[in-house]
TrEMBL record:
It comes from Streptomyces collinus (strain DSM 40733 / Tue 365). Keywords: DNA-binding, Sigma factor, Transcription, Transcription regulation. GO terms for molecular function: DNA binding; sigma factor activity. This is ECF subfamily RNA polymerase sigma-24 subunit. CDD domains: Sigma70_r4 (cd06171). Residues 96-148 form the RNA polymerase sigma factor 70 region 4 type domain. GO terms for biological process: DNA-templated transcription initiation.
């Protein structure tokens, strides 16, 4: 659990858009996984099993408030990824712009984009985590990326920031 916490928190934060909601999501996921550890431990890919539990828990919460899209408020408690090089302030601005843009996507598109491009899962792994077909993943990811590209603030960050 300790070794996987930062990655689980990052994924949960990207799904929920709020630090405290992400912590709650990871904690409830780990509670469910602990109770079912015999099944989890004997699974072919325990990490994928845990990720699937988290996606399902997030989907259940999201169904209750179907039209509400959460905007990131505070990610100060997350473990930061170390960027390769460049201007640190510009990277922070880019990250904020990306998080705001992700918050504008519908839940399924957000899940597909986060799992495919941030978590770097294959289409098959993403489909398993989301509980849908590969075609649905492709469709949701393509629509999500198209919406992200259409957002003026994000497009300006990418083109003016020197990262085309």
């Amino acid at each position: 659990m300790t070794g996987r916490w930062p990655r689980l928190m990052r994924t949960a934060f990207l799904l929920t858009g709020e630090r405290h909601a992400a912590e709650d999501l990871v904690q409830s996921t780990l509670e469910r996984v602990y109770v079912a550890w015999r099944r989890v431990g004997s699974a072919d890919d325990p990490e994928a099993y845990v990720r699937r539990v988290m996606i399902n828990a997030h989907a259940r919460r999201h169904r209750r408030r179907l039209k509400e899209f959460l905007a990131p408020r505070d990610d100060a408690g997350l473990v930061r990824e170390v960027a390769d090089a460049g201007d640190r302030m510009a990277q922070a601005d880019d990250r904020d712009a990306l998080l705001e843009a992700l918050a504008q996507l519908p839940a399924r598109q957000r899940e597909a984009v986060v799992l495919r491009y941030w978590e770097d899962l294959t289409e098959t792994q993403t489909a398993e985590a989301m509980g849908c077909s590969v075609g649905t993943v492709k469709s949701n990811a393509a629509k999500g990326i198209a919406k992200l590209r259409a957002l003026p603030g994000l497009a300006e960050t990418v083109t003016h920031g020197g990262r085309k």
